[in-house]
UniProtKB/TrEMBL annotation:
Keywords of the record: Signal
Pfam families the record matches: NMT1
Classification via PANTHER family: ABC TRANSPORTER SUBSTRATE-BINDING PROTEIN (PTHR30024:SF48), ALIPHATIC SULFONATES-BINDING PROTEIN-RELATED (PTHR30024)
Record domain SsuA/THI5-like: where: 54-241
SUPFAM superfamilies referenced in this protein's UniProt entry, alphabetically: Periplasmic binding protein-like II
Protein name as it appears in the record: ABC transporter substrate-binding protein
Lineage summary: Bacteria, Pseudomonadati, Pseudomonadota, Gammaproteobacteria, Methylococcales
Length: 321
């Protein structure tokens, strides 16, 4: 009798132990040079991480496009991308959806002693653009210039390339200004270059007052519906990790090796801009503004960026349960 009770009790203990370690694995595609890597590292360094209902499986990807391929092939469960792409896919029948990550935006940067003081000074200049003709900030910049009756696409000499190469082109004097992603703009600013305008200011100039996050976590609706608790817990942990990086010096110091720079000024500026990108509001007002941005980009890109749909596809934005 005693032996039976012992075996039964041991079985309960082992069963409880198995239940305790059974967690949902979240496979995330992460660009090693991106800020998502900072946040996930901070999350995993938190002593409370072991108590979460999920565990992370990090899949490094070389580029944003490589991440999209990994997501669409099922190699990862989620990655960070933009909601324009999500809406375009949903319009074709895919069930991807979006949850906001950051409002950080790229900007227009010039040398400190440049004669360029505003968009009006760009005509006849050489402009380096990170990305291609359909880069969102490039489309916004053209629309803003058009309000001043400036046909920017026809009046500047354009150089399209990857952000690191664009930065080098500016440093070597081969271009007069660059329109680049925010962390590459920060790198230049910390070396004395000036930012003329950023993506948020461009949108404001185009009548969009709300702070709309352009990038966020992208995943399948069908997958999310089967992992609601783990996903909800992950987003809460993500916010806590970001808050910690922005307010707790020890947390920030731990991820500094991931910044890939020993320049203290650059480190400080990266932290500032990263924290300024914190999503503090995401509701009907911001989502309606996203719809207006969609319409704007649809017109500016002649449907090339958005696809043919007249408006954002239903279900583009995912809500926490």
């Amino acid at each position: 009798m005693k032996l039976t009770a012992f075996v039964f009790g041991l079985g309960l203990l082992l069963s409880g132990a198995c239940l305790a370690v059974e967690k949902t694995t979240l496979r995330i595609g992460v660009q090693v040079t991106g800020t998502v890597a900072w946040e996930l590292a901070a999350m995993q360094a938190d002593p409370a991480f072991a108590a979460h209902s999920f565990q992370l499986e990090i899949h490094p990807v070389a580029t944003a496009e490589a991440g999209k391929v990994a997501l669409q092939s099922g190699a990862v469960d989620m990655m960070v991308s933009d909601w324009i792409w999500v809406s375009k896919l949903r319009a074709t029948g895919a069930d991807f959806t979006f949850y906001p990550y950051s409002t950080a935006a790229g900007g227009l940067v010039v040398p400190e002693k440049s004669t360029i003081q505003s968009i009006k000074d760009l005509p006849k200049k050489r402009l380096g653009i990170a990305g291609g003709e359909l880069d969102k900030n490039w489309l916004f910049l053209q629309a803003l210039a058009a309000k001043e009756n400036i046909k920017l696409n026809a009046s500047v000499e354009k150089v399209f390339a990857a952000p690191p190469l664009i930065n080098e082109q500016l440093k070597q004097g081969r271009v007069d200004a660059v329109l680049t992603y925010w962390h590459f703009a920060v790198s230049l600013e910390s070396e004395g270059y000036r930012q003329i305008i950023d993506g948020k200011a461009m949108l404001k100039g185009l009548g969009i007052e709300e702070q709309v996050p352009m990038i966020g976590y992208v995943f399948k609706d069908s997958w999310a519906n089967g992992h609601k608790q783990a996903l909800s817990d992950f987003f809460k942990a993500s916010k806590q990790a970001r808050d910690g990086l922005c307010t707790l010096e020890p947390a920030w110091q731990k991820i500094i090796p991931l910044l890939k720079t020993d320049n203290v000024a650059t480190q400080g500026k990266l932290r500032q801009r990263y924290c300024e990108g914190n999503v503090t509001q995401w509701g009907d007002k911001e989502q309606q503004a996203a719809g207006r941005i969609y319409s704007l980009l649809r017109t500016l890109s002649n449907n090339q960026l958005t696809g043919d749909a007249d408006s954002l596809a239903p279900g583009t934005f995912w809500s926490l349960p």
